[in-house]
Amino acid sequence: MTLTISSPDENIRHILETFGSDIEIIDWDICGPAPVSHIDMVITPLLTKNPDYQHLDGLDFTYVQCSTLGYEPLIPHLRSHHILANAKTVHETSTAELTLSLILAMQRNIKRSIISQAEGKWDTFFSPGLADQRVVMVGVGGVGSAIAQRLAPFEVDLIRVARSERDDAEGHIYSTTQLPQLLPEADVVILIVPATDETRGLVDDDFLSLMKDGALLVNMARGVIVDTAAMVKHADRLRFAFDVVDPEPLPTGHLLYSHPNVLISAHNGGYSEALEPRLKRLIERQVRHLLAGEKLENIIHR
């Protein structure tokens, strides 16, 4: 059996070429119409390629393998017989790594140290730090779990929040309905939830108004989770670090670029040197599963 699989870039093409005649490779980055009418598995590009998933409409395909953890923009273009898998195991560690980097940079005021170094000034100061701080993390999926594991050595008071209240092997999980009681005591709030009808606009003026002066909000989820105008309103009172924002990219000259209480990472969460080899291993496993007639990993049940 020969499988027809689309390749969005040269790196993925190289992976598919190792399967020889078992694979027919179609070069397609989903930025224009598909060059063929049938593809067994579509592999999506990374978001920096700006794919247009409307080009999936009318195409005969069975499987979609995301190169990203997020898959929400694909959903309107999938039918009941389509099988969707995301890139679990590829991005969690790098995203958690950047999350801790942003938190530590803000909690230890690294921006001030950089400015002092540039000015040739020896500048010793106190900062909030991370030890003994109360951290409220909204989202307990794969990336949330990776973040929680990395927070543990810093001896924080971690409060985990999800859609429903429950207990798991790591302890208690609060419900998002309890956020009004949790936010006033939070020193750091981390967002790592998918974009759904429930989470879009979750962080608005009311949400931010509940946070105490000087608290830090870290958005590692989706830009649409946080109302950008509300961030601007509270930027003098709170602190913000984010990898995603709405709109994205943030327009040139926007106030948040230059605000001293803001640290911006331009959607770099998964982009480390770990990305390519981990994605390579995942795609190799998925192709082997298909060739063997086995079920794919990371299937998203819609």
UniProtKB/TrEMBL annotation:
Gene3D superfamilies, per database record: NAD(P)-binding Rossmann-like Domain
Pfam families, per the entry: 2-Hacid_dh_C
InterPro entries in alphabetical order: D-isomer_DH_CS (IPR029753), D-isomer_DH_NAD-bd (IPR006140), NAD(P)-bd_dom_sf (IPR036291)
Domain D-isomer specific 2-hydroxyacid dehydrogenase NAD-binding: 100-269
Domain of life: Bacteria
Keyword terms of this UniProt record: NAD, Oxidoreductase
MF annotations from Gene Ontology: NAD binding; oxidoreductase activity, acting on the CH-OH group of donors, NAD or NADP as acceptor
Name of the protein in its database record: Phosphoglycerate dehydrogenase
Record bears the keyword Transmembrane helix: no
